[in-house]
Specification:
It holds the Pfam family DUF3311. It comes from Micromonospora vulcania. Keywords: Membrane, Transmembrane, Transmembrane helix. The protein is mainly alpha-helical and 80 residues long. The chain has a domain of 54 residues. Helix content is 35%, strand content 0%. It is built from 2 helices and no strands.
Length: 80
């Protein structure tokens, strides 16, 4: 009786090929904070903070929300 042959295992990492157009949305939190017109001014102030400081927090929220949106739109539905 012949022993079953072991399955061939590959040790090379499999590269993900996700060419979803939703990935282009990830450029928004990169490009928008680089536009200088947003920082050109002191007012309006929110809770006494100048525009520059509260816009920094806004960019963080923009980045998190955009990343979450792209993840939800591009994840595989069958994976758990």
């Amino acid at each position: 009786m012949a022993a079953p042959e072991p399955e061939a295992t590959t040790t090379a990492p499999v590269r993900a090929k996700d060419h979803s157009p939703w990935n282009w949305l990830l450029f928004i939190p990169i490009v928008v904070p680089l536009i200088p017109v947003f920082f050109n001014g002191d007012s309006p102030r929110i809770f006494g903070f100048p525009r520059y400081y509260w816009l920094q927090l806004t960019w963080i929220l923009l980045g998190v929300s955009t990343t979450t949106l792209v993840y939800q739109l591009t994840k595989k539905r069958g994976e758990r």
